[in-house]
């Protein structure tokens, strides 16, 4: 599959909940990778999903309104449209976000130096 992302994503394993339709039905999911712009999310079995999904990631303290970009078996690629929660709740959240951005930059630089770009 052609990777058209504008930035890197962090590989993670976060539990999440997706509101999958207007009636408020929710489905548990696992976030496999995430960035500021989107995520790859895995669902158990063949969940019926709409094109618009509200994704909540309690561990990150964030919720997103997202649009499904692709689907392959039980995994979907989501592009975030809106972050539904406000600003980070504490200084720790902001410092963690900066640290994650720096980690992505360093990993890209390591890959460049190793010729893996």
Can you tell me about this structure?
The protein is α+β, with helices and mostly antiparallel strands and 117 residues long. It has two domains: 1-86, Thrombin, subunit H, CATH 2.40.10; 88-117. The chain contains one helix and six strands, in the order ββββββα. Strands 1-2-3-6-5-4 form a six-stranded antiparallel β-barrel. Strand 1 (10-19) and strand 2 (26-34) form a beta hairpin.
Tell me the layout of helices and strands.
Layout: E1 10-19, E2 26-34, E3 38-43, E4 52-57, E5 62-72, E6 75-83, H1 91-113
What's the main sheet like? 6 strands, antiparallel, barrel
Kindly report the name of the CATH homologous superfamily of the largest domain: predicted glycosyltransferase like domains
The CATH topology of the largest domain comes to Thrombin, subunit H
Q: Under the CATH scheme, which class of the largest domain? A: Mainly Beta
Order of helices and strands: EEEEEEH
Mean pLDDT: 82
**Whole-number count of domains:** 2
What spatial order of strands do you see in the largest sheet? 1-2-3-6-5-4
Tally of contiguous helical segments: 1
Question: Would you identify the regions where 5 or more consecutive residues have pLDDT less than 50?
Answer: none
Structural class: alpha+beta
Q: What's the CATH architecture of the largest domain? A: Beta Barrel
Strand content: 35-45%
Helix content percent band: 10-25%
The CA-CA distance between the termini, in Å, is 16 Å
What's the β-strand tally? 6
What spatial form do the alpha-carbon principal axes imply? globular
Overall radius of gyration: 15 Å
Subunit arrangement of the protein: single chain
């Amino acid at each position: 599959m052609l990777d058209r992302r504008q930035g890197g994503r962090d590989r993670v394993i976060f539990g999440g909940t997706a509101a999958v339709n207007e009636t408020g039905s929710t489905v548990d999911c696992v976030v496999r990778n995430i960035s500021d712009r989107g995520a790859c999310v895995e669902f158990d079995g063949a969940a019926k999903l709409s094109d618009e999904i509200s994704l909540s990631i309690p561990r990150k303290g964030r919720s997103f309104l997202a649009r499904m970009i692709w689907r392959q078996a039980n995994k979907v690629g989501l592009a975030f449209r809106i972050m539904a929660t406000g600003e980070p709740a504490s200084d720790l959240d902001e410092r963690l976000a900066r640290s994650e951005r720096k980690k992505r930059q360093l990993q890209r630089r390591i890959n460049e130096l190793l010729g893996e770009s």
